[in-house]
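@channel sequence for tomorrow's demo:
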Amino acid sequence: MTLFFLVLAAYLIGAIPTGVILTRLTGGEDIRNAGSGNIGATNVYRVAGRKLGVITLIGDCLKGAVPTLLAQQTFNLPATGVALVALAAFIGHCYPVYLGFKGGKGVATALGIFLVLSPLSVLCILLVFVLILWKWRYISLASISSAASIPPLVFIFERSMPLFFATLVIAGIVIWRHKGNIELLRRGTENKFNL
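structure tokens (generated this afternoon):
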């Protein structure tokens, strides 16, 4: 019963639309109607500025990290329970009940989850992310490449099948939710990221 409520709470926390709330609170337009229409940090950064973009990134990371950390450290759940809580938080961000199940792509929330589950994996994928972003300046390409890289890293560093399978699901959803960006990359019309 405890696991059920933790999974539900993780989903509801993950579903909090950080970017939408922040842009509304600061008097900006609904982020879903601006730029790419995505509620994540990259679109907030482009539309509402660096400060709100960074705060959105941190908020979305915390939505993944906090439930996962509580499941792992406070409630001492086994790996399967931790994996379910992490998945619930991630799915909450991607398919939030508060926004009619239309959410973000999940990269920042996944980052928060993996900072708890496998910090060494995060160090490796951050290197992948930064190198690809520096070379080609496409956040989408860096995100997709990082998502594809993390399942084997989690398997190598953590040796946990529940965490590995959760990572596979998260990575698969991240890549799937970038399908529009993949098409833009294929056409050569994807927006490049400029600091």
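heads up for whoever presents: The chain has a mean pLDDT of 95.
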